[in-house]
Amino acid sequence: MKLTLHIWRQAGSHSTGRFETYDLADVRPDMSFLEMLDQLNEQLVASNTEPVAFEYDCREGICGTCSLVINGTPHGPRNATTTCQTYMRHFHDGDEIFIEPFRAAAFPIIRDLVVDRSSLDRVAQAGGFISVGTGNAPDANALPIAKQDAEDALSAAACIGCGACVAACPNASASLFTAAKISHFADLPQGGPERGERVRRMIAAMDEEMFGSCTNHGECEAVCPMEISTRLIGQMNREYLRSLVVQT
Amino acid sequence: MKALLALLDNTVGQKIITAATGLGLIAFVVGHLLGNLQMFLGPDAINNYAAQLKSLGPLLWVARIGLLALILLHISMTVRLALRNRRANPVTNRRIERHASTRSSRYMIISGSFILIFVIFHLLHFTMGVVQPAYADLTDADGRHDVYTMVVRGFQNWAIAGFYVVAMVMLLSHLTHATFSVFQTLGVLKIAQDSRAKTVAKAVALVLALGFISIPVAVLLRLITA
Question: Taking the model in full, what pTM does it have?
């Protein structure tokens, strides 16, 4: 495959960036998208050009480190798929591909395609600790949890914190991320004592980081590689209203 | 009270206020439409209805002030959030594909602003009679304010009728997103996350807009005459 790549290049957070165009030949369909970028970087290094900086870690779709807005969609064209799990067979010979970083005021660009997503970490950290019993492992079923509650908590916990929701949102809102982290614990007995405090603190942290607000566009859900539902945003709002009425 | 003030402190609370006031305004729009549709029942029905509303006296002013408070809260929260959202997403030079948002959801500020301008015009027109003073103070045979003739004469003007229709198309755009969105924001998940309920919500928006549009159109088609 031969490709024309338009890649956002930016030397640092305060420099102005621009698209650079690169031609890349001999791309195999069984390469992952990141391997394709590796091949581009080898070509750039061979011609004494600065390679393109991009982030990755596990390359198996579970860590949330890879990012990239590919042809206008965070994590590229495949539904429920991270960039690292996107393969070149999803593209065609002769394609032009635009590659940009995840953008938001809360995600300052560090270099090229790498952005600082520590704002999400700070929102998660604002959740604080949860109270659980220590000591020996508890007996099985000593703490009964309804099947549906357990399922809902696990669905929310699927969030890998990649930030695609923020990058896709016209308002650069982190509502889906924050809602997933809140819903993760909301209906579980573990962390129950901190329930109200947690939602108030996490929402305050989200605002502090200069994320936008949710206007129910639904773009986040459409690009989420873990298929987190906007239902959780409604649940976050409900949790927040509850926290105003019920202590803890 | 403290809980209500806490809502003002964060974006989720502000959004909840936007949704709650929006829901109140939708309720008003439904009531207003039901009242207006009495235009189709002839002069006696609508003039009687208007006279009854007027006879509420101080209660009418309570309703008016309440409505004004809803509008002011709704707009102030939205403007605050919209400015914040613009700052949160300052980059304009990117390609971005839209997968889920709709024209209706993206143009809420534009449709909302148009509706505000319309509401001001509408008050100057039919409530205060500034726009067409000749039709504002007519009385019918029973000595009641002749709302029927005022509306018919008003809508016989193509430009005014056209403006009302355009404004109601804007209302349709605004409500198409709003009617489902309020339930999502208020966490009424049974409604917000049900695709059938979403369709019903859009249908409600359409019925409301078409209901309002039917009046100037009926006047222009001479289905309603003075």
Answer: 0.95
